[in-house]
């Protein structure tokens, strides 16, 4: 089994985690490290000959029938391996060397089940440094004599020049400016990191370093390099948000200063930046640094002196050309829910002073701007994460302080599997750029390579990790991306085993794209003298952890795999031993020897059956492995289903709420309309009623009108009396005289009374008239049932008695 094929994209190492605490009832151990094979030595010398390279799985006792799997890695580190062992034996020094000297990018990533020790390997603990700190230390120690400029601060012009040749559309800041923005001047003296999310959530991997309360380097610029860089010409004024030329001398003053022949590294005359050039440079920080540097304020982290300094890696320092000039840029990003987010430019929640990344999945998704992994104008041959914030660091401490800032932004949550579980794939990039000058044209540029350290989130099962809601969504995305990563790694190992060159399907998700894109040599990269990256994968596993999850990860990542079925003692050997034991000591066969032939026949049958059994056992194991893989795919699908279900539920809920709101509004408007109508209706009714109740009073007639009225009535009455008298004349004379006498008498009586009211007079007069009328008409024969109509009293009946 070739455990370390030369063409592998990734060197894959396995590291076993020691038990955290000694429990009385330790779970069964599921992994056993094989003793190193003396004959084995790695093809490229990437692992020492005495180092173990294989591991076997021990299925739990309730599943003994399962086949034993044997996995091959570049090297296996058992529980006793220290951080320094891992750093040295994984060849991280050669990765650093590739970045510094060989124009080769380096990538180191950790992969494993949640809680298996990935972050510990990458970032270390309170007492031990991780491979990130050690790599940083080696790089800064190697660059110590060459890193420019001295006094640990970077002049802005230098940054402008670096930025102009940067291909990733980044924003650049010096570490001092950046850390000033993060911690502020007032907090510099404090040493507590109690309030940083990192301190509470990731206690085992302290990264905080920020010790030197130096002045803002930019404030000291004018005196820094008077002769060499001509920086006295430029002064950074944060208030004006721009580089301004402080001198009023002629425009070529800078060129004169910069081309000073005494300068140890003079800039070419034709490449000194004019103000316009600086303005045109693709640097957000230089055009407009302060707005981009808004950052939630933090308290300064713990003192550098309290941070672990071991393991010491001074002996790994590399020799570099002392005349070269380097600059180190640090950037950090995370892949969260298959999107890339810059960890050094977080979104800000107004008034809260904390990054949005701590606010939960949805808000994070909504408020942070995600970045693209793409080819840019300046980098057509390879993809880069565009638009990152890059911090120029000139010391190890500065780089660690920036790393600390990025880590506090990273999404970490407590789950059932790990109390500080990473919920995103974190990438820490260390770009080392070297100044290159074209001797012929004098053109200056900065080229460099990047060492990327990736701390991948751990795979987990929703059931064991007890995740729900947004954490479940994250877990689904994590598992999915790890499944794709597993497919790529499997393709890599099957390519090597069968010498095929099948396509590694790395474009399926952001994680695999970021890890694999730059691993393949292309024609363009070859023409640009750029080597494909070197990559190391450190797989971490807990030997006392979950068998299924651990063996699944190992199946993904191992460079080689074998399956063996535990053999039962062969029937042949059993029979031979039985027969042998029955042979007498004197050499004679026992009486049962006659059965030997039958037994031999049976032996052959048994042998055949045993072989068949083994074959079936092997198939069973293969089927089981297939089933395990399908189970993983099922878990991923289940996670996806849950995710979809959750999304659908949320959508339905939102739609229902929207509809309810619409209905409510509709009912409200109908109600308002109806109420308005009712009010109108009632108003109208009231109006009508009030109109009906209005009492009309005739105006009091004036005296003249009354007189006139009465006179008119008198006339009427007189004419009526005349008519009656005339009628009376036409009838019997006796009645006539009597009647007349009666009328006259009445009139006389009325005159006598004199004081009777008009009404009484009128009533009496009416009675008289009725009487007279009945007399004149004679007896009237009324039809039965017909009522006699009474004459109503009228105003004109009320004539004064005198008139009558
Ligand atoms: N080699 C080791 N030596 C001592 N302790 C270790 C080692 N590896 C891991 N641990 C401890 O185990 C615990 C879990 O480790 P860690 O946080 O690194 O897991 P992880 O794989 O990064 O988990 P996740 O994927 O959930 O982030 C920590 O307390 C860590 O200190």
TrEMBL record:
Residue ranges, compositional bias (Low complexity): 573-588
Compositionally biased intervals (Polar residues): 39-60, 253-264, 740-749
Cellular component terms per the entry's GO annotation: kinesin complex; microtubule; nucleus
MF GO annotations: ATP binding; ATP hydrolysis activity; microtubule binding; microtubule motor activity
Region entry Disordered, spans: 20-65, 253-275, 570-591, 730-749, 777-804
SMART domains attached to this UniProt entry: KISc (SM00129)
Binding site for ATP: 112-119
Name by which UniProt lists this protein: Kinesin class 6 (MKLP1 group)
Naturally occurring in which organism (per UniProt): Aspergillus mulundensis
